[in-house]
Model the fold of this input.
Amino acid sequence: MRRGSLKTRLLIGVAIAAFFAVKYCNQREVNDYTGRTQAISITTEQEIAIGIQSAPQMAQQHGGLHPNTQYQALVDNVGSKLVNNSIAKQTPYKYEFHLLADPNAINAFALPGGQI
Done:
């Protein structure tokens, strides 16, 4: 009886693995901007919503936003140049750049289409 149980477990394991392999292959598509094939599991709108939702928490974890508006303007300028001179310009995202107050972390991040 134990041997039959092992076969059943193996069969179930193979079925689960096959299901996820098929699911992964069906989510693959060519990225219009990079030309690379990649697995896509969320839409652009979902990705933007996740970014907007997580931005306040990210800022809070790093001491909030930096209060210096001149530094923020510099980050905005550099970020805009990066977007305008890269493939990011062709994407549906509208980027915002946020300078963080934490001196011990990477102190800026880009948020596609969101506000803090």
